[in-house]
Amino acid sequence: MWPTLVANKIFNKRLGSSNFIADYPSYTEPLLGIVDIDQNSQTILNDHKDTRKYKVFVSTWNVGGIAPDEDLNLDDLLETCTNSCDIYILGFQEIVPLKASNVLGSENNEISTKWNSIIREALNKGTHQRDKDQGDAKKQELKNICLNKRENPAKYCEAPHDFQCIISKQMVGIFISVWIRRDLRPFIRHPSVSCVGCGIMGCLGNKGSVSVRFQLHETSFCFVCTHLASGGREGDEKYRNSNVAEIFSRTSFPRGPLLDLPRTIVDHDHVILLGDLNYRISLPEETTRLLVEKRDWDTLLENDQLIMELMSVNMLRGWQEGPIKFAPTYKYCPNSDIYYGCCYHGKKAEKKRAPAWCDRIVWHGKGLKQLQYTRIESKLSDHRPVKAMFAAQVRVLPELKNLQSLFLSERFEQIKTPFEVSTTDEFVCAKRSSFRL
Prior knowledge:
The protein is of the alpha+beta class. It is built from 11 helices and 13 strands. The chain is about 25% helix and about 25% strand. A 6-stranded mixed β-sheet has the order 4-5-3-2-12-11, covered by helices on one side. The radius of gyration is 23 Å and the shape is globular. It starts with a helix and ends with a strand. Mean pLDDT is about 80; it is low at about 30-45, about 150-160 and about 415-435.
């Protein structure tokens, strides 16, 4: 991976836009053989598109190089039993330790495959249990109606509700995994990835971003999973700003067969940037700790470096972040609720790290409304995971409106047609069940 990153840095080339792992080959052909609309017709129809809303889940988690146990519980993070979304974006940093062998050596997908297996089980287990709890009575009622009408209840009750991975990509310790409801998958087009290394020598992947993009119906999405430069000293925020500028300038996607697809990050309709952005609080450490103890988030946030960047006229102008009403997510002592520096004395006190909101989710573009922004109390690493939920407006061609109703369930309305839930196969890392596109 790293020689490729160096070469692409020098020659400013895009890195493997189709080099990612997914459950099945991507949908590139029109659904059910519908002929693609030519450019002239597309232009005419642009003003006559319907809009649907979908719920998008986004999370970021620096796991500190700690491999997950097989029985790791993601229920608190995903909340699938009570609040299922249509799309799940899970971003991770440091899924492997950032040592020289991992940064300079060949890519090892063993840990990312393990994370995908855990995510798959959590998403589908939660969906199946929720549907079972909420729909058993209605399913039986529908079956009775179907039998009375001499219809086949299977056509109403066997539509799968599970999730599939459409994009999964790792660059050293940065890893992003994109999951979507199976019934939405036929409407996904043009998935691709773009990796930018900003670490050692300004191009290796210990820091940087893995960006993914796809089109859902007629709306483009871009998710940027990042790990920016660390450091809590005065002036270190300039390195993080430089990383962001590099990511924005070097991330590039293919234009598509009609040369009409967005190429850069901010060209997409809906853009969400997530990750360990590493921005700190511009206050003395003692002051920061005192304010954290008082839970005086307002004063701390007035001095938060990322918020100051969002309010500036620099490269993050136009980006938004929801209100932060949770404690700083970094840095904790292992397996505890105590911030690092409070639990050590003597020589180890030199390794203090002032608490900060390093783990963030920000967005760009119209048609996104944040519904939730919070942190999760997992003690797996020295960071707490952060998650957000969005309502995303998506444009749909009128020609497909009736066709969609055969497959899709509105996530913001009561589901009127319950389905039987089918079980899903365990995530297999054999090449025959995962495709490198």
